[in-house]
Amino acid sequence: MTNPVTIENHDGVAVLVVNNPPVNALGMAVRQGLRDGMRQILADERYSAAVVACVGRTFVSGADIREFDLPMEGVGLDEINALFEKSSKPVIAAIHGVALGGGLEIAMGCHFRIATKDAKFGQPEVKLGLIPGGGGSQRLPRAIGPVRAVELIVSGDQIGATEALDLGLIHELFEGDPVAAGVAFARKGLSEQRPLRPLRDDDTKLAPVRADRTVFTEAAAKAVRRNRGLEAPLACAEAVGWCMDVPFDQAIKREWELFLKLKDGEQSKALRHVFFAERNTNKIAGVAPNTSPRKVNTVAIIGAGTMGGGIAMSFANAGIPVKLIEVAQDALERGLGTIRKSYESTAARIGLSPDVVAKRIGSITGAVGLENVADADLIIEAVFETMQLKKDVFSAVDRLAKPGAILATNTSFLDVNSIASITKRPQDVVGMHFFSPANIMKLCEIVRGEKTAPDVLATAASLARRIGKVPVVVGVCHGFVGNRMLLVRILQARKMLLEGALPQQVDAVASKFGMMGPFAMGDLAGLDIGWRSRQDSGEKSPIDDALCEAGRLGQKTGAGYYRYARGSRTPIPDPEVDALIVDTSRRLNIPRRQISDDEIHERLIYPMINEGARILEEGLAERAGDVDLVWLYGFGWPAQTGGPMFLADQIGLAIVAERLAYMAALDKDGSLRPVPLLERLAMAGRTFASFK
Fold first, then answer.
1. Could you tell me if 356 and 343 are in contact, meaning their C-beta atoms sit under 8 angstroms apart?
2. One of 45, 79, 85, 125 is an active-site residue; which one?
3. pLDDT tens-digit profile of 634-670?
4. 125 labelled catalytic
5. Residue 640, CA distances (Å) to 89, 269, 272 in order
6. Which of 359, 391, 376 is nearest to 324 (CA)?
7. From the candidates 67, 73, 105, 445, which is the catalytic residue?
8. Which of 279, 285, 606, 657 has a CA-to-CA distance to 573 between 20 and 30 Å?
């Protein structure tokens, strides 16, 4: 096996070269190579300085996360950094690409750090339910000050090279080859006899905060406040705080012990599952890894309503120009006006500069008439959710679009195959189901039609990533993955209202779990959406229908399942709704009873798991992790539980199957019986994660 770390002699300057493609992850072999290489450099009189540099597209990008499920063995970062820090020979990290997690910790063990102008830095361990485990919680505060350090470590955010230079994290910017730049910096430092001061011994930026900890306490509290239900952010803040009270070596020991505790905890396991599930979305069944996506330089979106405007903003936010098309000038102007107000509101809330706002608004061009799709490489339809209207649009677009253009529908329920059949190019038709608000929610369900070409799937997924979405490829069925499972949840929630629960009780149980409740969510989305659909299909939902007939359509009318004060989105329980629910139960001869919070939780969650299993069995999602991603990024499922299918694995599929069988018998509801796949896996003691 080739050693991933080698030593190059550049006329007396040793360069430790890391070559561990694709991203130079800090696996066991790399750690051992760095330690052994540094020992060799220290023992060799030919070398007066050492440079740590990497080949490929990046510096060390972080730990090899696959090792986290194994016993933590081999060389630790503390041993490597001790060699760097105690070296009488200057050690320089020459950084390009990213230095994240363990990569940044290795760099901070060096005496000096230099970087390219486009380099990025961060300690993202919190996103895996962890704290930095290689000294990051103690060295970063010494490099940039405890206040900025706690903000970065608790959030897991990255900073660019310019900010890193201003903060003192790096010493110099360079252009070109990292090895050449590192060697040049080493020689200059030697000629100037630049003093070596390891970060561990530099308390300069700690002193002011030790004198007045108020500013640190406030920054830590603010950072933690944004992370409800998560253990790691609080642990990160605590660990950073040690830098002001605990001797360095003792703090490093504590940091490692806390890292190991979190690593073995349920939240970190769940978040690591999410990490790998996202990585697996690159693997699309039937699409060869070397499939080249089609070039997309121009994008047209049909429909300037809520969804069309949000999709347009997603492209503009990523720097991709987009043409927003409507059939009438007044509708177009309303849509563009809504986009402008949204950007202005966002700018006021998070501090976007006027230049950024102007650039994003300027990236969206309005046009009237479908003929304006003629030069687009990708056309996304985002009109009202009725099949005939969508077919009319696709029929026209089929005539007007250039050959090779991708025709995407944003439908959330309708049959993509039926839409594709209206065109002469069904191979170019794909679903791109964005979730509302489309400029914020990260999920994009990529719906594979029967005839969708592999390169169309590859293009849609690649483009979704480019605009900051998580693409999950799904099959064609009513509601695809997300909304199909949502309907099961809604059905149980409605039944519980008729049987004895009230909206605020059901929503409180969901909120305690970490999700928006089904009734608050209904009010947010608008109860009239389902009402219109039921009118078309002839279905009934007694309570929902009564609310809509009374003009209670949700937040937009100030009343739905809850009432809302003017200008507020806070739901207020309404005695009128409680009375309506009780009267409806009486009218339908359904006896009401006390329903426990435990029952509510199981009835909201377990039927969804069952439906997820049915989706897997039907081949409409390839992996259980794909189902989890849909709910994590489309519906706000609490990430620390890993998603519905991962949660089921943690509960135990035998328990889930048993409870579903009990519910089915109690309710005489055949749809709640455990599906065959769930029963087979439960009987074999297997998990959804093992299903292929």
1. no
2. 125
3. 999 999 999 999 999 999 999 999 999 999 998 877 8
4. yes
5. 44, 8, 10
6. 376
7. 105
8. 606
